Amino acid sequence: MLSTAALKSHRALCGAWRLGCWILLLALLPGCSAIKLGYSKADDLAYWWLDGYADFSAPQSERLRAALSEVHLWHRTHELPLYVGLLQQAQTLAADNISAAQVCGLAEAGQLHLNALTLKALPALTAVALDLSGRQVAHWERQWAKKNTSWQDDWLNITPAQREKKRLDNFVDRFESFYGNFTPAQIQLLKQQVQQSAWTAPWAWQDRLHKQQQLRELVRSFQLKSPNPLGAQEELQAMALSWTSTTEGYGFETRLRLKQEACANVAQLHNTTTPAQRLKAIARMRAYANDLKDLSTP
Predict the structure, then answer these.
(1) Rounded CA separation 76/12 (Å)
(2) Is residue 45's pLDDT more than 90?
(3) Cα–Cα dist 177/197, whole Å
(4) DSSP structure string for 158-179
(5) N or C: at which end does the chain have fewer Cβ atoms within 10 angstroms?
(6) How far is Cα 26 from Cα 48, in angstroms, rounded to an integer?
(7) End-to-end CA, the chain
(8) What letters, b where the CB count within 10 A reaches 16 and e where it falls short, cover 67-89?
């Protein structure tokens, strides 16, 4: 239950090439076999995702693959056991009614782990950014343009009713994968939450464009001034952390409202669930925790 909420939250807040978000999303794939399969290939999948934007040369690929493998090993041995602890906390909370503050507590702990992974990956990502050619940056921008067109088709170029239905269907699918089938009253509650949400497609679109522009300008500035790696890494770090900050930076007020809204909504929905639904959610989280334990064992 709480992992589903974290998944939705991270998808909404993560910007371009946040490696931490990418690997966590792999770890939260529905289905035990999918977790093990996806996570075991996380470094390869992260590489192919990045390569789809940058079209790396052979030397760049070799360096990046080695760096991602190191990050993956660190994450597997250091972070996965901590995720198990969060899942165990979530199981305990899921047995009873919960508060928005309890949901936010787990979400904030999860965000700290994402930040730690981002910082661990930054040396490798900085090396990539400093080594991009003008041709590669142009390729990257073309890929962005394609993704942006697809995003517009998915979220902007549809009617408000279609957008509401799409969001509702997404929420129902995710939460039912934990709790089992919802009652009409529970689905109606989710619909009300969607209708009252501070999230809007125009806001999300502008936030997306802002992040892309920030990253574009920073990478192009690297090409012009050739900064030292440590200075470039600090700039990338400040930018990446600002994308999820709820205390400062572009759009932080809306991110804060969305975070508070998500915590309240998850608590409200959970408190409508039956004992059977809670047991199903606990069993799902226990299965995830067991899989993560297996994955973290050398």
Answers:
(1) 24
(2) no
(3) 22
(4) S-HHHHHHHHHHHHHHHHHHHH
(5) C
(6) 14
(7) 28
(8) bbeebbeebbeebbebbbebbeb
